[in-house]
Amino acid sequence: MAEKSSPFIAPQPIRPSAPIEGFALDSTNTPPSSTTSDSHQTFSHRDILRRALNNDASNITPALPESIISPAITPPSTPGGTVVSQPRVHPNETTQTGTHTKGPKLLEKLPNVECIVRARIPTTTGAEMFLHLYQNDSDNKEHLAIVFGNHIRSRSLDRVQEGETEMDRMIRGAYVGRLHPGRVSSRLEDGEEVPNEAGALQKGHTESPLVRIHSECYTGETAWSARCDCGEQLDEAARLMSMASEPTSSSTEPPVDGGAVSDAADGPGGVIIYLRQEGRGIGLGEKLKAYNLQDLGSDTVEANLILRHPADARSYGLATAMLVDLGLGADASPEGIRLLTNNPDKIRAVEGPNREVRVKDRVAMIPIAWRTGGQKGIRSAEIEGYLQTKIGKMGHMIR
Ligand SMILES: Nc1nc2c(ncn2[C@@H]2O[C@H](COP(=O)(O)OP(=O)(O)OP(=O)(O)O)[C@@H](O)[C@H]2O)c(=O)[nH]1
């Protein structure tokens, strides 16, 4: 009778003929002789993980026996069409038994970004926002800025392009004020304000704008998943920012001719930088594999490591560059931003290599279920484990 193989052993381990870029197999960590393909020793999740976590910090590859994880389930790089290749595990990352900490990926230079188009989106809550779509020279993804408040403007979008017509400008969203049928100019109409040099309209706000750097999560934002709080965080950030872009009592100007309050009365507003780094940068397919590993007993960090990904494969240079483009960098907004996050890594990373952005305050994102004693918000066994892992292993400050 054929011997039953371990689910973790590839039937025919395939060894890459050439090392995969940024991901060398550790030849010093020779697998035990009993792990050859014709001697199928069973390894539990914990065995695999213990080996990964006990590995010396200077060796950036978790020391998994080669035959245990099939190359068939470990694509050579995290997805995204990255132009600049990055190692699978960041060199800053250190591993210790029981914990897995990492520093943010700090880039030496910010990528170049350009806002290609912007459009007004009335939302189901009644609030309005402007969706900005960006291109960049670091990957080929469509990263987004969701802008609450009329005064936050993109420099690259507003820049005049050679040969463009007024209609071209309006179609790509480089207009001031509101579009309406019959409008012929992208520029000022009667009663509208002049953008300042940074692109932002002068308002004299007393409070700093709210900013959230949000990583894409198809499962949590679209597919109703109760494994994480990503969808809830996105909704909550939008709610807070739409409040922050409403007229405030301190800045409200008297309505002109008894009409609507003018734009000048808007609050400081906010921006959600929506980065297409699904699954903390490993992509949806790999995240779904990680979910299966979690159902088999691993936590979120362990599952990533078993799949030979870093615990967190993200970087935030694009977010910094987009904030600078939106006039929220230290050059145009020296008072700084208020960052909605529980992740301490993000704070330093978003500030950029030369402190291009200043984070004035961190605003915590407490899960709604925790705030309401379970009356509202997401409730599941999975999310409790997910949040505990973020606090215990990733240093998140959920308070
Ligand atoms: N690899 C992996 N990614 C996950 C998992 N659950 C959620 N994610 C992804 O995690 C990202 C969100 O990261 P989080 O760690 O929840 O939060 P954060 O962005 O680091 O910190 P906050 O700013 O406090 O929200 C999204 O891209 C999700 O798709 C999981 O189990 N495994």
Average pLDDT score:
76
The oligomerization state is single chain
How many structural domains are formed by the residues? 2
CATH superfamily of the largest domain: GTP cyclohydrolase II
CATH topology of the largest domain: Rossmann fold
How are strands sequenced across the largest beta sheet?
Answer: 3-4-5-7-6-8-9
- Summarize the main sheet: 7 strands, mixed
CATH architecture label of the largest domain: 3-Layer(aba) Sandwich
Radius of gyration: 24 Å
Q: In whole angstroms, how far apart are the ends?
A: 57 Å
Family: Belongs to the GTP cyclohydrolase II family.
Pathway: Cofactor biosynthesis; riboflavin biosynthesis
Catalytic activity: GTP + 4 H2O = 2,5-diamino-6-hydroxy-4-(5-phosphoribosylamino)-pyrimidine + formate + 2 phosphate + 3 H(+)
Pfam family, one: GTP_cyclohydro2
Describe the structure.
With 399 residues, this protein is α/β, with parallel strands linked by helices. 23% of the residues lie in helices and 13% in strands. The protein is built from eleven helices and nine strands. The chain has helices at 45-54, 155-158, 166-171, 218-221, 230-244, 284-295, 300-306, 317-325, 344-351, 368-371, 381-394; strands at residues 94-96, 99-101, 113-122, 128-136, 143-148, 210-215, 270-275, 337-340, 359-363. The strands form two sheets. It has a seven-stranded mixed sheet with strand order 3-4-5-7-6-8-9, sandwiched between helices. A two-stranded antiparallel ribbon has the order 1-2. Helix 6 packs across helix 7 (300-306). The protein starts with 44 loop residues before the first helix and ends in a 5-residue tail after the last helix. Residues 1-43, 55-78, 80-101, 196-202 and 250-265 have low confidence and may be disordered. The site of guanosine-5'-triphosphate has 22 residues, from helix 5, helix 6 and helix 7.
